[in-house]
Structure formats: structure tokens, C-alpha cells
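REQUEST FORM: STRUCTURE PREDICTION
Request ID: SP-0412
Submitted by: Lab K.M.
Chain count: 1
Length (residues): 193
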Amino acid sequence: MKQKILLPTLLLLISVSLSAQTEYKIPRLRISTSGGLGYLVAEGSTGDAGSIVNVEKITQFNNDLRWTPSLNADVHYLFKDWGLGVKYIFNTSSATATDLIVDVQDNQHYLVGDALEKMYVNYVGLSVSGQYRFGREERFQFFASSSGGYARLRDESHVLMRNMLITGNAYGVNYEMGIEYFLNSNFSWGLNT
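STATUS: Completed
RESULT:
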């Protein structure tokens, strides 16, 4: 009777020991950096552009502000198909308009000046991610993440001989998805949106 209990117990302990020593193929930590040039699709108001004589310069100024170079970094602790982590994003944008002509509405005078604006947005938030490997030898991976956190704006402007500094913060969200190609088990290249 003791042998009947001892043998299954011994086999169970051996199988637990063997499974604990098998190699875990999913990496536990994902560190990702990316960067690129983005274009803001939202349109803003040009404000009171009625007093500006050369409106085409303000239109070009606003279009230049829409192009945003950005840098992203994130770290995720991975479980089987999903992970928890932190995401950081830095966006910047700038524009310059020279020789703006402003009608001061007195039927006698015009102001001529320049406009310069630099915007900086820093974002940090908690992130949840998902991943799915596919393809031959699972070299491709679909990756998506969603995060929510703190966004900080700093806007430095110089408009018609007047300097302005606008700062603010708000709750921000970020959604991202992409596809990656793994060169080896620890390094990949990819595209994301």
C-alpha cells in the first residue's frame, strides 16, 4: 500500500520539478522606444484674424504647428499575451511667421511684426498592452497598448513684440498599435500608429 502511494507522489514531484526548469519563451520585460513625425488632424480657430492683412501667413503658421516630431518610450512587464507598464511621450511643434501686417483699425496705422511659437507636450501614464505573435517561426508580432495619465503643456510665444508663456496640464490618453518584425528573440523593428 505504501508503494502505491509513494510511486504517484514521486512521479508528481518529478513532473513539477521538470516543469519548473523548462525555459520560459515569452520575455518578461518589454522596453520600447520610437520616434517620428506626426501630423495633428484637429483644426483650431485662427482667432480674430480679421485685423491681419496677410492672412495667408497666419494660415501657413497654423499649418506648420500641426507637424509634430515625437519621441516615445515605454516599459511593460509581460504576462502571456498582455502586459502592464508605463508610457512616456514627448511632442514638440514650432512655427514662425515674419512680417505680419496688422491693421490697428484706426484707418491710419499698420503694425508689422513677427510671430514665433514653440509648443512642448510631455505625457506619462500607466499602460495596458496586448501582443500576438504570428508568421513563420513567429517572427512577426501585432502589438497594441492603451494608456491614461498626466499631460503637461508648455507653449512659448512671441507675437508682435509681446512674449507669452502658457502652461497647463490635463488628463491624457494614448492608444497605439503596430506590427513588429523580430530580428532575434530580443530585438525587433516595427511600425506603429
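NOTES: The helical segments are 2-20, 55-65.
Reviewed by: T.R.
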